[in-house]
Amino acid sequence: MLRDFDWSKVDALTDEQIVAAAKADPDSILPTEAELAEFDLVLPAKARREMKAGKPPKEAAE
After folding, report:
1. What is the pLDDT of residues 39-57, one digit of tens each?
2. Is 62 part of a structural domain of the chain?
3. Angstrom distances, CA of residue 6 to CA of 3, 24, 44
4. What is the domain range of residue 44?
5. Is 50 exceeded by the pLDDT of residue 62?
6. Number of domains within the chain
7. Does 59 map to a domain?
8. What superkingdom does the record give (predicted)?
9. 54 backbone φψ class: left, alpha, beta (φ>0; ψ -120 to 50)
10. In angstroms, what CA-CA distances link 1 with 39, 55, 59, 62?
11. Mapping DSSP to helix (H, G, I), strand (E, B) and coil, where does residue 42 land?
12. Most buried among 22, 32, 38, 62, using CB within 10 Å?
């Protein structure tokens, strides 16, 4: 299903439009700022190995 999905429609949305759509979806639960503060960042093993080797982390895909 995702293989046939037209991602250009999603790419055309602004962050504000995405948040508004998530808030309008009754099945979506957006975390609060307090919940976000409790999350731990977990780096993939490959990124951890690269950092140990002195390589700077790669930027996330936008």
Report:
1. 998 888 988 888 888 887 6
2. no
3. 9, 21, 28
4. 2-52
5. no
6. 1
7. no
8. Bacteria
9. left
10. 30, 36, 28, 22
11. coil
12. 22
Structure tokens, 19: 């948040």
Structure token digits, residue 11: 């790419």
Q: What integer is the mean pLDDT of 26-31? A: 92
> Would the pTM count as exceeding 0.85?
no
Give residue-wise pLDDT tens across range 2-26: 678 888 998 999 999 999 999 999 9
**Tokens 């731990």 sit at which residue?**
40
Amino acid at 12: A
pLDDT at 60 over 60: no
The residue to which tokens 């999603």 are assigned? 10
